[in-house]
Every structure is written in C-alpha cells, then in structure tokens.
UniProtKB/TrEMBL annotation:
This is ABC transporter permease. It is found in: Cell membrane. It comes from Pelomonas lactea. InterPro entries: ABC3_permease_C, MacB_PCD, Macrolide_Exporter_MacB. Residues 309-430 form the ABC3 transporter permease C-terminal domain.
Length: 438
C-alpha cells in the first residue's frame, strides 16, 4: 500500500512538473493569486495560513538548515542562467545580423557561405531579379561577397596560439545593405589595394589588428586602415575589397554569396521565386534574418543542452538537500503538527503549509542565483571557437527576463519536489505515532 502511495506521488509530481515547465509567467501569477484567495477566503486555507505562519516564524531558529536550501538552489539557478545566457547571447548576435528587407543568395544546397559559389553570370542575373532595390543612380543595391578564413594570433595567448578569423571580400554596396556598419576608427579601405577594416569583435579576439598594423593574408602583406562596429556577427570579421581578396586567394572572378537590399520585406517572395524558377540559376534566396537565425540554431541548441544538463545534475543535489532539511523540520515539529490535527486541522492545510515554506525558501534562492548571474555575466564577452564553419564569433552573454523566469521556475520546481514528500508524511502520519516519535 505504501509503495502504491509513493508511486502515485511520483506520478503526480511528474505531471505537475511537466505542466509547470510550460507555464508562462502570467500563469504562475494566476496560480499565486488563486492560492492567496483560497488561504484568505476558505476555512481550510485559513488553517494552512496558520500552520505556515508558525513554520515561517521558526525559520530564525533553523537558519543553518534553511540556508542549505537557499544556497543550494541559488547555485543551481546561477549556473543554469549563466550557461543559458551563452546560448541567448549567441542567438541574439546572429539574429541582429539579419533583417527582413535584405536577402542573401547562395548556391542551391549550400548550408553556409563557404560551401556556396556564384559565377559572374549568376550575379548579373541576380541583379536583374524583381524586388531588388536601386540607389539614386538606378543601380541595383547588391554586394557580391567572398568569404575565406585566415589564421591569426589569439589575443592574450602565452603559447602563440592561433585562431580562425573570417575575412569577407565586399563591394561598396556592402555598406548600403548593412547600414548598421559604421567606421569608428581610421577609414574604410580603398578599392584595388590590400587594405583591411576590422570589426571590434575581431580586435578583441586577435592580436595585431590595430590601425596601421600589417598582417599576412594569402601570403601577402595587408594593412589595417580602420575599425568598424555593427553590433552583430559582422563585428567578428575582417573586410576588404572583394577583387583583391579573390586575387590573393586565387578565387577567380566568382563569389560565395550575394546580399541584396529589397524594395520592401514583402518583395522576398517575388525575388526568391524569380531566382529559383530561373533554369539558368541553381540558387536559393532567403531573408538575411532567416539565414542568420538558421545559422544560430545548432550552436544555440548545443549550448542549451549543456546548460540544462549541468543544471539538472546540480538540481538533483539541491533536491536531496531540500528533502533532508524539510524532513528534519517536519520531525522537529511532529508534536505541534499532531496536536493541530488532533484538534481538527485537516491534512491538506498541513501539506500546503509545509510546501509553502519550502517554496518561499526556493524562491529566495532562485532570486539570489538569478541576480548574481545577471550581475556577473550579463554583457560578458565570449566567443566561439569556429562560428559559421570559418571563424570565431564574438558575442556578449545575455541574461534576459525570459532566462530569469526560467531560472525561477527551476528553483520553484526544486522546492516543490523537495517539500512534497516531507509534507505528505507530516499530513499522513497517525497522530498517536507522531506524538510518540516527538
């Protein structure tokens, strides 16, 4: 019988946790409001409030054991939110790199720019497709670009380690299709010369990218003439004239991709249909927002899996800490709880009161853990080892309100699991047994 009862509790706990995971913040507020209404409007709720108030008033006498719950849950939430902030920051940086009114065109089955190739003839036909915006001179706003990799010394490395940097050969139209790119130091490169402008993120990651410095790319010397900022993934790249990059890397006259400015976001439909329906072309067009969001999916998923796995392992320890603490707390109050039940208090108010105590401690631990994660890691600079299959991507960790809510949900879930079994034991223990054990 006891086995069936415990099995039922486990199944109930699993169902409630499954629903809790999908609950939005406003749903949690609604549940809290219903609980408060029950505690103040109904007799059994008033009983739960009385038992809970007595338990909370004795917390000062149990600071050490209560701190075990708070600190344990704070650690779980802090680590979880910090790791998930990496995924959020990476995805946000990639999403900021695209928009709905620009499109990128690549060879049909290409997963990224590196594996794509476009000929000069392809680019001419892409320029003539419907939906492409034009400048004041009536010229299509299109930047045909080459993407290559270069090994550069990693900043701060004492062993001379090198990392992969993404070099993008662009045309003058690149600044028109990406108006967020601004030169913040020095000047832009001159067409036909081996000159580079480098992103702020690349400057933070690699040595030797100061204005006026010389570095070797494609076995040729290049001069850094400027630094640009864009607030997205482009900040991790080095830009130069596409024709010069192609010459240095022996790429001929082709390009890897073409980025175009659309007349408006709705123009992507006609633009993509015209290109994909052209039998002379084997290309695929998508908005840059969709492209960069797709690029972020795999890395974001990996980072989230790591964060949730580590958080789950730590949560197990926190649950056992909460179980031990609450079983001890219930045992110390066995006579009090037995007396209350003897004078007419029902089992449900006792269960709610014990779980409410654990939940409040869990909420405190979750709030502390989330605040520490936000304080230490929000905006913290990080980088991938090989973003986009070519170079490192610099990004900032982002502790968003959604992540903080996710951390609070984990904290409350741990408190729920840690308090459920002690609460049920307190409410179901026979009065005579409880008095004898006390």
């Amino acid at each position: 019988m006891k086995l069936l009862k415990n099995l039922g509790l486990v199944l109930l706990m699993a169902v409630l946790l499954a629903g809790w995971v999908m609950l939005p913040w406003w749903g949690a507020l609604a549940l809290a409001a219903l609980l408060a209404a029950w505690m103040f409007l109904f007799r059994t709720g008033a009983q739960a409030r009385s038992v809970a108030s007595v338990g909370l008033s004795t917390l000062t006498q149990r600071l050490g054991s209560s701190a075990v719950i708070v600190v344990g849950i704070a650690g779980v939430v802090g680590v979880l939110v910090s790791l998930l902030a990496m995924a959020e920051g990476y995805a946000r940086t990639q999403r900021n790199s695209g928009s709905l009114d620009t499109a990128i065109v690549m060879r049909g089955a290409s997963a990224n720019e590196v594996s794509s190739s476009l000929s000069r003839e392809d680019i001419v036909q892409i320029e003539q497709a419907p939906g492409v915006a034009r400048n004041a001179k009536g010229e299509p706003i299109l930047s045909a670009e080459t993407v290559v990799a270069a090994n550069l010394p990693v900043r701060g490395s004492k062993t001379g380690d090198t990392g992969s940097a993404q070099v993008r050969g662009i045309s003058e139209a690149a600044f028109a299709v990406r108006p967020q790119v601004k030169i913040v130091q020095g000047r832009s490169f001159q067409a036909g010369l081996r000159e580079l402008i480098v992103g702020k993120g690349a400057v933070r990651q690699f040595d030797g990218l100061t204005v006026g410095a010389t570095l070797k790319l494609g076995n040729q010397p290049w001069t850094v003439v400027g630094v640009f900022a864009s607030g997205d993934a482009m900040e991790s790249e080095l830009w130069a004239d596409a024709n010069v990059v192609n010459d240095a890397y022996k790429r001929g006259g082709g390009r890897n991709s073409a980025t175009v400015k659309l007349e408006n976001p709705a123009a992507i439909k006609a633009f993509s249909e015209a290109l994909e329906g052209n039998p002379q072309l084997k290309v695929k067009a998508t908005t840059t927002l969709a492209f960069f969001s797709k690029q972020a999916e795999r890395m974001t998923q990996i980072l989230r899996i790591i964060g949730i796995t580590v958080g789950a392992i730590m949560a197990v320890g926190a649950v056992f800490g909460a179980l031990n603490t609450m079983f001890a707390a219930v045992a110390s109050r066995a006579r009090e709880i037995a007396t209350l039940r003897a004078i007419g208090f029902r089992g449900l108010p006792v269960v709610v009161a014990v779980m409410l105590e654990t939940t409040l401690l869990a909420l405190l631990g979750g709030a502390i853990g989330g605040f520490v994660a936000w304080l230490l890691f929000n905006g913290f600079e990080a980088s991938t080892m090989s973003a986009g299959a070519v170079g490192k991507l610099s990004f900032n960790l982002a502790v968003s309100p959604q992540l903080l809510w996710e951390g609070i949900k984990w904290a409350l879930a741990i408190g729920f699991v840690g308090g459920l079994f002690p609460a049920v034991r307190a409410a179901s223990l026979p009065v005579t047994t409880a008095l004898r054990e006390a």
